[in-house]
Amino acid sequence: MRLSEFRQAVADEFGDAYGQVVTSDLILVDLGDRTPEQALKAGISPREVWLAVCRAADVPRERWHGAGLPAQPRG
């Protein structure tokens, strides 16, 4: 997942305005108590950040692949 895809997935899932709140204010315990923006700046991959956001925000698992992106294979 590219950063642009991460941003699109956040906007598609949460909307533009609330998506900005999520990425700047949501604390991701899974990623060392960082916000999504802090995690990205620390070099954590957008995909890993997206999955942490999904877990923290209780996004239904069927949407964890990111809106507009192909579903990940089940394995």
By oligomeric state, this entry counts as: single chain
How many alpha or pi helices? 4
Measure the end-to-end span: 18 Å
Q: What's the total number of strands?
A: 0
- Integer average pLDDT: 90
Radius of gyration: 11 Å
Shape: globular
Q: Which stretches of 5+ consecutive residues score pLDDT under 50?
A: none
β-strand amount? under 5%
Classification by helices and strands: mainly alpha
Task: Report on the biggest sheet.
Answer: none
Helix content: 40-55%
Strand-and-helix sequence, N→C?
Answer: HHHH
Question: Nutshell version of this structure?
Answer:
The protein is mostly helical and 75 residues long.
Describe the structure.
- With 75 residues, the protein is an all-alpha fold.
- Helices cover 52% and strands 0% of the residues.
- The chain contains four helices and no strands.
- α1 (3-14) packs parallel to α4 (46-56).
- The model has no long low-confidence stretch (mean pLDDT 90).
